[in-house]
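Batch manifest, entry 17 of 40.
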Amino acid sequence: MIEIRKKDLEKQGYRLVGNHSSIKVCLWCKKAIRKEDTCYKHKFYGISSWRCIQASVTQDICTLNCDWCWRDVSKTKVKFGKTDEPKEILSGFIKEQILYLQGFKGNRDVDKKRLEESFKPKHVALSLTGETCLYSKLPEMVEEIKSRCMTSFIVTNGTVSEMIKKLIKVKPTQLYITLPAPNKSIFTKVCKPKNDKLWDKILESLSLLGKFDRGTVRLTLAKNANMLNVEDYVSILKDVDFKFLETKAFMPVGFSKLPYEAMPKHEEIKEFSKELAEGLDIKLVDEKKESRVCLLMKKDVGRKLNF
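Output type: structure tokens
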């Protein structure tokens, strides 16, 4: 990564690890340490927001250039240079997370117990930026996370179905596959894929979701972009064996090409979710208004990790 890009990312709050990885301490982690609020993953699944590392093993590396992405997509590449080892990356994540959070020791508003716990992170969310499944050593990364008694939440756009197949053997704690559009034509328009085979790759990845204990479908929704054609989403998802379905509003941050007006209100996300739930014969079981996200399940059972 060239030096000017590193400085740009560091100004944005990223902490770079090795040749292609990074962390960024999220807003909810900071809020949780101050005991102000927690993220939706805490509300939905029992994850301790103050002990969660938001990270990427594929900084600036992706197969898509979605209109709602917060990355500077002009910097996007598909290929790696030198590939780092999972053990080195995870140790780097933990080190950078602790270094960043040290600054909270001088904050009188922190919850001291949570702050101390934050120095011993328990959760790794590979969701920050880029396409996680392009990292060739991802299965080994999952195993490394497990070996340290931590949970792994992996978010993928589903375009690398070959890696999804490999992950079946190691089973991350929770696997998210993003369904970015209701059909191929809208996908091509708003996601600008690197080649014309990637829509079929997403469908293939979705077909594998039932092989994971906590398979999750994510819809990141933007008005006048992909928040339409509910019946097409239903048509795709009716045969997908998922445990969780999340619907979340696009947020106009970073380098997103969409205007502020494209961000749905929580009430709009909730209404869209209800239409999906009706079409799929499932239930809307939880929501977090501040994050503009809803959770849908067939049965509201077994979702809390308490880890």
